[in-house]
Amino acid sequence: MTSDKKQIKMSDPKKFKTVQDYLDSQPEMIMVALIELRNCIYEAEPSAIEMINYNIPAYALMEGGKREQQIMIAGYKKHVGLYPHPTVMEKFEIELSDFKKGKGSVQFPIDRPLPKQLIVKMVRYRSNLLKMDNYEIER
Length: 139
Fold this sequence. Notes:
alpha+beta
């Protein structure tokens, strides 16, 4: 890990213009875990649109996707966060029982391998829900 990278905190004034800027600001272990999370998102939804939202990486699961239609990720000192949506957290509550969770988020400790297949399933589930909702609206 290079010493010139510092941990970014939510209170830091730095505003990121791109996801790559965000990733480059992270310590190496956090950056690697975030890239793995991003790869899981793209495996589940190859057409996801990458952006910065709330100063962290976000992935719109449909064109023009607002906050409710995005999966967000963030790096912290000892974990990476995945913010899929409360409906996803409810659906995968049992599978996520070993991790610290919030209403719409889960923390993956940096000292453990990411549960990549579970993350892919979670993102696919959310994407499919959004597609069903969109289908219902269009009918």
